[in-house]
Amino acid sequence: GAGVSQTPSNKVTEKGKYVELRCDPISGHTALYWYRQSLGQGPEFLIYFQGTGAADDSGLPNDRFFAVRPEGSVSTLKIQRTERGDSAVYLCASSPQVNTEAFFGQGTRLTVV
Amino acid sequence: AQSVSQHNHHVILSEAASLELGCNYSYGGTVNLFWYVQYPGQHLQLLLKYFSGDPLVKGIKGFEAEFIKSKFSFNLRKPSVQWSDTAEYFCAVSGNTGKLIFGQGTTLQVKP
Q: Which residue among A54, A99, A113, B109 has its CA within the 20 to 30 Å range from the CA of B29?
């Protein structure tokens, strides 16, 4: 498809488990962003990539969260030892280059039980 | 600290009423300003953006916003809303990295 694709769309996991969330950006987009949106709130920045490197990971809440983009395209957000407070919608966005319009995916709804 | 404040959390209007949603920001340096919309069950979509130039910006579906630098504001307006405008609206600001700082959103409900 032409848009940003995120998989899975929904993920239910038990507390303490490890999860991976995948983002397929629009082809050719060099910048990729991850956000987290809790109920009733706006999206909060987690990390962004310019190419393969994480240019700014200041929004990652703690060291249980990690993200990679090894080939400069698909990105994976990894969460270790999940906690109930990690439950949220995780959004991915991409843009042709940094500081241009960002296009968002549908998000992955993560529920930690 | 960088932040965005949206004054209205939940707005209810009748069709054909005029809309204005407030947005104020706190951000050091050059800013780019955005309004995103999220229709029920859909992903975030860009309504309009301001990078530079004319502070009155026109977007899709008849929306417009005015950047008032002295007031740190970027309010969204539409002269006549439709039932299909029912959605959640987010104001956002970015600097030169494209990293977006969002407000908490305004839920707009338009009654037919």
A: A54
Amino acid sitting at position A29? H
Nearest chain A residue to B94 by CA distance is A99
Chosen from B89, B99, B102 to mutate, greatest number of chain A CBs within 10 A: B99
Q: How many angstroms separate the CA atoms of A27 and B18, rounded?
A: 39
CA Rg value for chain B: 13
Average pLDDT of every residue of chain B:
94
Any residues with CB less than 8 A from the CB of A61 and at least 6 apart, and which? A46
Calpha distance B28→B1 (Å, rounded): 8
Distance CA B23, CA B4 (A): 7
Beta strands in chain B (DSSP E): 3-6, 10-14, 19-21, 23-26, 32-38, 45-50, 56-58, 64-68, 73-78, 87-94, 100-102, 106-111
* Closest by CA position to A24, among listed A108, A98, A83: A108
Q: What is the pLDDT of residues B45-80, one digit of tens each?
A: 999 999 999 999 999 999 999 999 999 999 999 999
